[in-house]
Amino acid sequence: MNQVLKNKKQKIKMVVIGGGTGLPVLLTQLKKHDVDLTAIVTVADDGGSSGIIRNHVNIIPPGDIRNCLIALSDLPTIYKDIFQYRFDSKDDFFSGHAIGNLVITAIADMRGSVFEAVKLLSTMMAVNGKIYAAAEEPLTLIAEFVDGTVVRGESKIAKSRKTIDRVYVKPLDEEKEAHAAREVINSIEEADIILIGPGSLYTSILPNLMISDLGQAVLRAKAEVVYICNIMTQLGETENFSDADHVRVLHKHMQQKFINTVLVNTERVPDAVLNQQADEEYLLQVTHDFQALREEGCRVISADYLDMKNGGVYHDGSKVATEVMNLITNMPISYKYKP
């Protein structure tokens, strides 16, 4: 490792932006490394237990935050399992709800905000890092399709099976603009490296970046910005996409080429798995266009990041975390430690 890194006491400040199932997989592995880790989590989820709680209590959806708390917690497994337990009851109220979602909601009600709830739970659960909701109020994800139609609600977008032109977010009162918390902006401005993804492009990643002050903070950041590209395309979102198409969409939405480095999986997904997902979340493997990525101003790091488990296709969090740490080691000193 670079001698400067050995001698420097200050930890690398790493910010991870995303949501869905990919974010906690990566956080679980990154916390094993000696970094100052912050997770910024989407608040536009309106499906499942989170959506029901959001609609009844007018609170940001707790599901992704719950999973990040578990990912960064150093508690024994039995306590994590309790927090993650999802009721399998036929009771109209409890059915499908995770205990952790109810706990987050209750403490938010006690303390007056989800921010305070997560702060308290982070202490109680021995969380190794910081977790921030991207905004302190629930947001509606809105998609405009190339045919001019508009759909409101994250859970409805993919079901429309139309080509998306752009997405954006609005508070429940659409006359207002969405804003990120000051702590979110500060963490981005102070970051040495910003990881975006892995996660659904339109419904897990862009909902964060479309919060205007959050997105602008990413554009202003002096950090290395790394996009962890999805391994598979998704029905109703990124059908027929290459890795370069993912980056083009990000750059189009932000109106600036801001991704410095892209991590791309090049390991082949077995044919038996392709287009066999019961929930129809996946379609085919993302194709590669390294020349187009370079034209977007990106450095490309390609390797085997594939993890096949439970019949599904995932990023191997350990491999990705190791790659990120290798990237940090080789970053210019100006990225690593600013005066």
UniProtKB/TrEMBL annotation:
Required for morphogenesis under gluconeogenic growth conditions. Gene3D superfamilies: CofD-like domains. GO terms for biological process: regulation of cell shape. GO terms for cellular component: cytoplasm. It is found in: Cytoplasm. This is Putative gluconeogenesis factor. Belongs to the gluconeogenesis factor family. It comes from the Bacteria. The lineage of its organism: Bacteria, Bacillati, Bacillota, Bacilli, Lactobacillales. CDD domains: YvcK_like (cd07187). Its main location: cytoplasm. It holds the Pfam family CofD. GO terms for molecular function: LPPG:FO 2-phospho-L-lactate transferase activity. Keywords: Cytoplasm.
